[in-house]
Design goal:
Layout: H1 2-8, E1 13-17, H2 20-28, E2 34-39, H3 48-62, E3 66-71, H4 75-78, H5 93-100, H6 103-107, E4 118-122, H7 124-127, H8 132-139, H9 144-147, H10 151-158, H11 165-181, E5 185-189, H12 193-207, E6 212-216, H13 241-249, H14 256-263, H15 276-288
Parallel strand pairs: 2-3, 2-5, 3-4, 5-6
Antiparallel strand pairs: 1-6
Helix pairs in contact: 11-12, 13-15, 14-15
Amino acid sequence: MEKEIEELLTRGVERVYPDKSTLGKVLISGKKIRLYYGIDPTGDTLHLGHLVQLLKLRKFQDLGHEVIILIGDFTARIGDPTDKQAARKPLTHKQISENASGYKKQIGKILDLKKSNVRFMRNEKWTNKLTPEDMLELASHFTVSNLLTRDMFQERIKAGREVYVHEFLYPIFQAYDAVTMDVDLQIGGNDQMFNMLAGRDLMKRKKHKEMFVLTTKLLIDPTGKKMGKTEGNMITLNDRADDMFGKVMSWPDTMIPLGFEICTSLNLSDFAKEKPRDQKMKLAHEVVKI
């Protein structure tokens, strides 16, 4: 069990807050925790970037922990400003609902939806109930100076581009999600670290509780750009098998080690003597099996 938990907290993991050893001790003790992963329905299909988190969630699910998939139907209306050089275009409620309509089926390719320890929630359910008085109290736990430390806001300011007030609200509402669901752990890509740590801080203030945060490595191309919808280089979970295979085979060889680490359960060391093309074919076969 200890070896399994060690791999759970290291493979494909960038950081654990406050630290891996503390979370490891909780998991080894046999305590069952509640964890969540949030997805904003800004597109109608999930992609390999989501797969990284979903595979991690499946490991937690198999260990008997309670997994929550949070559909961010409210936060999608704001638009996560992470890594964005301009404000996102607002989505309508109808667009968001249509985008999310196929998520459960796609997620069911990775998580076991027949088990009782996985459930889906939507943050519109509680966020729409907030009154102006509630908003004032919630906002009082955050400072503008802290929110302005985000890299993309600093870059926009230096470039003379606008930063809108509603974008400041995104990490606040995401933090409120964590507190409302009273989770023990939040999982997300390393680019979500700021938003997730906001939730960790709010949990301490509101419930005097230590919430863990686990950030995963990002699937990035050789230029350092995230593989995803915005960049136009994504592999979706709805792609045809031959399209998935071809896209993986088009990856540069430098992406092979990372691909094995975060998109599969195989160890590249087992194929170390094989040619890069053969390694990539094994990686492509694993991705297609999703």
